[in-house]
Amino acid sequence: MNKMKTKNSKNGIRVAIGVIFGVLVGVFTSNLALWLPIGIAVGAGLEYTSQESQNNNSEH
Questions:
Q1: Which range among 4-8, 11-15, 27-31, 47-51 shows the weakest confidence by mean pLDDT?
Q2: What's the CA gap between 39 and 45, in Å, rounded?
Q3: Are the beta carbons of 15 and 38 closer than 8 angstroms?
């Protein structure tokens, strides 16, 4: 039996953390419709900047 090797990737972790943050703040403030997209945007921004810094470090 051949086992498939899975790639251990950390892509999307920061977006998931942003979603969790947005949901938690949204639930506590009773304004989920506002805080969920804010959490997604913050997580996506963190993910983008971490990928950019990794790309810059690998070039040098």
A1: 4-8
A2: 10
A3: no
